[in-house]
Write a structure and sequence with these properties.
Strand content: over 45%
Shape: globular
Number of strands: 12
Order of helices and strands: HEEEEEEEEEEEHE
Radius of gyration: 40 Å
Structural class: mainly beta
Mean pLDDT: 84
Largest sheet: 3 strands, antiparallel
Distance between the termini: 117 Å
Strand order of the largest sheet: 1-2-5
Length: 263
């Protein structure tokens, strides 16, 4: 027998002594990490969750309605009921909100004097023009004593009001004017719905320009056509009371404005 501890006891004691330095190595860093320089306990770091980045929505329309007349045309011509005066204007929305044209004042100057006329656009509450876009207004005044072809000029002033943005978007393309009838021209084209919302009624304005870009006048018509998203329908319109019977030979380019709605 050996003096002192037996081998079994000795081995157990040595294992405990070897484990003790390992435990100290693990616990000492935790102990010092929980102490501040002045002996106060430091709270665990709390990380605030970051709010997710959201995409900015487009700024809403403003409240300033503005308009500018960019072109005009006037004629004295032989209409279906005798001599008549025709006037047309092209106007642009220069404000920062959608607008409707509530009233137009036309002032015609002839050799015989002046003719003043106030005009309320048909279905004007549906002809909503967005900022930067262009539309038209046209009038016919019958029962005149002026001779067809007489010198005439036109100035106008417009009254516009702010409107809610339209839910229906229509486009016009494939426009063509043909002088295939004696005394008047025909207008053909295609009307398409490009919005999710459709319509059962629409009104279309088309402006005509010669090779130099001079405004020759405008025509408008309504069409009872049901249009859903992606629909397109062709049209052919007789322009019996347009003052130029040879419009097809003169027109080199077009502008259009189309509006859809439900009654």
């Amino acid at each position: 027998m050996m003096d002192g501890l037996n081998p079994a006891c000795y081995n157990r004691l040595m294992k405990k002594l070897c484990v003790l330095p390992f435990i100290l190595c693990v616990l000492l860093p935790l102990f010092f990490a929980c102490k501040s320089g002045d002996g106060q306990v430091v709270d665990a770091l709390e990380i605030e969750p970051t709010a997710p980045m959201t995409q900015k929505t487009p700024a809403p329309y403003g409240r300033d309605a503005g308009v500018k007349i960019t072109a005009s045309a006037a004629y004295v011509f032989e209409g279906a009921q005798g001599p008549a005066i025709y006037g047309a204007i092209e106007y642009e929305n220069t404000g920062n909100c959608p607008i409707i044209l509530s009233k137009a004042h036309f002032s015609f100057t002839l050799d015989s004097g002046k003719l003043e006329h106030d005009y309320v656009p048909p279905l004007g509450e549906y002809t909503i023009v967005l900022p930067g876009e262009t539309s038209f207004a046209t009038i016919w005044i019958g029962g005149q004593s002026a001779l067809p072809g007489a010198n005439i000029s036109l100035t106008a002033s417009l009254t516009v009001v702010e409107a809610a943005a339209p839910t229906v978007a229509l486009e016009v393309d494939q426009l063509y004017v043909a002088d295939n009838y004696p005394g008047f021209s025909t207008l053909s084209g295609r009307l398409s719905c490009t919005s999710e919302a459709g319509c059962s009624m629409n009104i279309v304005y088309v402006g005509f320009y010669d090779e130099a870009g001079t405004f020759l006048g405008a025509w408008y018509f309504t069409k009872n056509a049901v249009l859903e998203q992606g629909d397109a329908k062709n049209f052919v319109i007789n322009m019996r009371d347009f003052p130029l019977s040879d419009l097809g030979a003169r027109a080199a380019s077009f502008k259009s404005a189309a509006f859809g709605f439900d009654l």
